[in-house]
Amino acid sequence: MHKPLLAAVLPLLAALAPSLAAAAPPVALASEPKPLAPLEIVGQAPTADWSAIAPADLLVMDLAPDAAGKLRRVVIQLLPPPFSQGWIGNIRKVAAAHWWDGTSINRVQDNYVVQWGDADGEDAAKAKPLPQGLTVVAQDQYTAKAAPEGWANAQHDAYAAGTGVVLGWPVSYAPGGVAPVHCYGTVGVGRNMPPDTGTGAELYAVIGHAPRQLDRNIAVVGRVIEGIEHLSSLPRGTGDLGFYKTAAERTPIRAIRLGTDVPDLPHYQYLSTESASFARYADARANRRDPFYIRPAGGADICNIPVPVRHAP
Amino acid sequence: MHKPLLAAVLPLLAALAPSLAAAAPPVALASEPKPLAPLEIVGQAPTADWSAIAPADLLVMDLAPDAAGKLRRVVIQLLPPPFSQGWIGNIRKVAAAHWWDGTSINRVQDNYVVQWGDADGEDAAKAKPLPQGLTVVAQDQYTAKAAPEGWANAQHDAYAAGTGVVLGWPVSYAPGGVAPVHCYGTVGVGRNMPPDTGTGAELYAVIGHAPRQLDRNIAVVGRVIEGIEHLSSLPRGTGDLGFYKTAAERTPIRAIRLGTDVPDLPHYQYLSTESASFARYADARANRRDPFYIRPAGGADICNIPVPVRHAP
Description:
Two copies of one chain form a homodimer. Chain A is α+β, with helices and mostly antiparallel strands and 313 residues long. Helix content of chain A is 16%, strand content 26%. The two termini of chain A are 29 Å apart.
């Protein structure tokens, strides 16, 4: 359900302030035999609280096998509308054209990003021609015009007026609009200096502490839901900004396909952020009461409440 | 200069709210020819703004060479007083006894921690005997009784009343005391269920988004200042919680020594958090005005303002 942004969201945020604890009444927790860890709550979530991720919304990247010959597959969920729609269309075209096949991972900057695409993309004489029909996306699509209702909190966020999870996605609220945020695993579109917004053929994934300064400055288009370790454990780049100095250091990309073009893909689901299970999970992330902890924090930043994803049982 | 915690810190925080921008007056920035990126500010910091890190406060870990035969050295700065003193004494004794030599990295959990020590430590029959004279540290040392003045902000932090950088260290302020926080690269003490607080012989380093839920629940004892990529790029663990299932997967530790016992170590310095350069750097991290950015965030969380460290020129 879409509503005008500020009118709908800010009262909701205000109502939930000042503590995440408000999202899950203590009485529900008091009835439990012992406090559950966040993943125990996820494990007990009923089937109805899980939402399917359509194969058409997946991007499947197969890297060249590792030194031991093991396959390395990275599965990316594309951002749903109403966020970042322009780039998503381009990405579907690039994947359908098999354009990424034979390109490579060109940059691995520690505590920041892994980046892939055409290593010669900046060299007009050698760059691989892009598929026909890509759209030039405007900067105003870094934010959405409206946001559906979802789990939200007005917790203390250093970067925006509030944060929430809408349609399974972490977002921030600000007068300029709602925008998906950069967390560990977030996938975005490499670009040159503004006003360039990037085509979507050059992508990056976050492999460190949330670089939230990028929010609203660059396009978020998805998140890694499986196989991020194949990116985060790659050798770090040897040159400036974590780019590899030599071609031999790059990891080849065998193929990137839309999920609909990949046989035998598992059925993925995310824990619906409109469900009671998600509210309990988010509360438990912010207030760890499981036995290892002695002092629950009373809060958690939006990137420390990752949306659970699983293979459908 | 030490003061009672709450009386000293909370007015300071209140004075700096609501925006980091208050820490560096706009007029100072308006006189610049173009807005500088954070690392440009660091590069221009005068010599007087850098503080030496004593070799006695360094822990130097040499891993077995990688597959290509390259050395892998990780340098850790130990936490200064008044934070976590009990464990630091134990760590000095464990290093002096060469106890870690021949142990291994046993756990690499993606977006969480790398952990090292005696892989058989949980097996009383096989555990390597600890050095004599280790102290049992009390839980109340997770927080400090007092904190010197430093750069601070009352920015929106989800986990505590406020955050700051004191003696070059990111900390959080709460009624229970000031405590070092868990950021990317933070080193802490593995422990069993409370009230166990760990000895310091089993250590971990954060390799993902800041797990701030650990603050005040486990001992922070340092941070990696060089070579974190040798930890963060290790193959992820194959078993529960990222522990390796087999001994062959573990990375051997050749030696861990105090900096005073390592010849030819570089001289390390950190950007003094009491300096004008640090205030400008922190402001620029929170308000990116360099040409790549179109919308400065107006804030940054404490773990997104890492303290710059360099080799002395």
